[in-house]
Design goal:
This protein has 10 helices and 18 strands. The chain has 365 residues and is α/β, with parallel strands linked by helices.
C-alpha cells in the first residue's frame, strides 16, 4: 500500500498558554474508506518522535510506517473495515506547524519564538481535523506512549466525540523520573554551542546535543534484558574509533540517524508538553477527569516497560473502575521494554481486533 502525506490548513488555533497560532498546518495520512455513516473512523496518535506516516509504504521515503504491523487489511486496525487517520502533532517537524515552520509575521522559522504548547493543544487541533472531515464521533482514539496521553486527553476533553479509547504503555501524567530523563535530553541540546538560543536554522545545526538527547532517550525505550540479548558485552571495531562495545556503536548510530530527521526545537517543545501533561488539571481527581459517558477503554501495558511502568496504567484503570466505567486492562508479557508497543504486534492484535469489533457492533445495535 503506497501512501502520501496530505497537508490540511486552519486559520488559527488558540493555545492553552493564551497565545493564538495561525495559520496552522496539519500533516496527515488516511488508510481505508470512511463509510456512509461516518461511523468507522479511528484516530491513531504517534509517540514523541513519530509522524503522520503510520502505515503503508511512503511515496516520499519508500519506507513502511511506524505502526505498519498494526494497521492494514486483516491487521489489528483492519483497514478493510475501518477508516484510519494518522496526523503529525502540533510542534512537530514532519509537516505540522512547529518551531521549524515559517512564521508568517517574520518570514523566518519560528525558532525561539514558537509558543509553549500542551497535549491538550495537540488534541484540540486533531479535533479540528476530524471535524473538517465531517466525523462527529470517532470509533476509537489510540496510541502508545505520548500517543496514549493524547488518547486520554480526547476522553477527558471530548467524551461525546469518541466511542472508545486504547491507551498503550502510557500515563495520565509524568513521574519525576520521566521528567528527569526528558530534562537531561533538553539540557544536552541547550548546552550545544550551535543551539544559538533556538535560532539556528540559518547557521550550524546543534547536531551533537540532539544526538546525545536521542541516545539518552533510546536507552529508556529498551529493557535490561533486551539490551543484554541484543548487545551483551560484545565489541565491534569501528573505523576511526577504538574498540567499541556494540551498544556504544548502536547508540551513536541512533543519534546520528535521529539528527537527520528531527528538529532540536521540536524535541524541547514536545518533551515539555509531555512533562506538563496532567489529565487531572482543572479537575478534582483522576476519577473526575473522565466525565460520565459511554466511552469504552482498553488499557494495555508491558511487563518490562520501566519508562512507563504498568502501575501508571493501573492507576488509570482503578480510577475508571471507581466510576463504574467500561474498561478492560491487560498487562502483556514482553522483554522489549517500552518499545514493546511498536514491536509486539502479535500480542496486541487479537486484543485490539476483538475490542474494536465489539465497540462497532454496540454502536450499530
Amino acid at each position: 500500500m503506497s501512501v502520501t502525506t496530505s497537508i490540511v490548513q486552519f486559520d488559527s488555533l488558540e493555545l492553552d498558554c493564551g497565545q493564538t497560532l495561525g495559520p496552522v498546518d496539519v500533516a496527515c495520512q488516511t488508510y481505508g474508506e470512511l463509510n456512509a455513516e461516518r461511523s468507522n473512523a479511528i484516530l491513531v496518535l504517534h509517540a514523541f518522535s513519530g509522524n503522520a506516516h503510520a502505515a503503508g509504504i511512503s511515496d516520499e521515503t519508500g519506507k513502511p510506517g511506524w505502526w505498519d504491523s498494526m494497521i492494514g487489511p486483516r491487521k489489528a486496525f483492519d483497514t478493510s473495515l475501518y477508516f484510519v487517520i494518522s496526523s503529525n502533532v502540533l510542534g512537530g517537524c514532519s509537516g505540522t506547524t512547529g518551531p521549524s515552520s515559517i512564521d508568517p509575521a517574520t518570514g523566518r522559522p519560528y525558532g525561539s519564538r514558537f509558543p509553549p504548547i500542551s497535549i491538550a493543544d495537540m488534541v484540540r487541533l486533531q479535533k479540528m481535523l476530524t471535524d473538517s472531515m465531517g466525523i462527529g464521533r470517532l470509533l476509537c482514539v489510540t496510541g502508545g506512549s505520548m500517543g496514549g496521553m493524547q488518547a486520554l486527553q480526547w476522553a477527558a476533553s471530548y467524551p461525546q466525540s469518541v466511542a472508545s479509547v486504547i491507551p498503550i504503555a502510557s500515563t495520565h501524567r509524568h513521574s519525576a523520573q520521566q521528567i528527569a530523563f526528558n530534562e537531561v535530553g533538553r539540557q544536552a541540546i541547550l548546552a550545544d554551542p550551535d543551539f544559538n538560543g533556538g535560532d539556528y536554522y540559518h547557521g550550524k545545526y546543534p547536531e551533537r546535543g540532539l544526538a546525545v538527547a536521542r541516545m539518552v532517550g533510546h536507552i529508556t525505550y529498551m529493557s535490561d534484558e533486551s539490551m543484554h540479548l541484543k548487545f551483551g558485552r560484545r565489541r565491534r571495531k569501528s573505523p576511526g574509533d577504538s574498540d567499541l562495545f556494540e551498544v556504544e556503536s548502536y547508540l551513536r548510530y541512533r543519534g546520528v540517524q535521529f539528527v537527520s530527521r528531527f528538529d532540536a526545537n521540536s524535541y524541547i517543545v514536545i518533551t515539555r508538553a509531555m512533562d506538563t501533561f496532567d489529565v487531572t488539571v482543572a479537575r478534582d481527581s483522576l476519577e473526575d477527569s473522565f466525565r460520565p459517558g459511554e466511552t469504552r477503554f482498553l488499557v494495555l501495558s508491558f511487563t518490562s516497560d520501566w519508562l512507563y511502568p504498568s502501575y501508571q496504567s493501573q492507576e488509570i484503570v482503578r480510577a475508571l473502575r471507581s466510576r463504574n466505567r467500561d474498561v478492560a486492562y491487560i498487562e502483556l508479557v514482553s522483554n522489549y521494554g517500552h518499545d514493546a508497543f511498536l514491536l509486539e504486534a502479535g500480542e496486541q492484535t487479537p486484543l485490539v481486533k476483538g475490542f474494536l469489533e465489539n465497540t462497532y457492533q454496540r454502536l450499530a445495535a
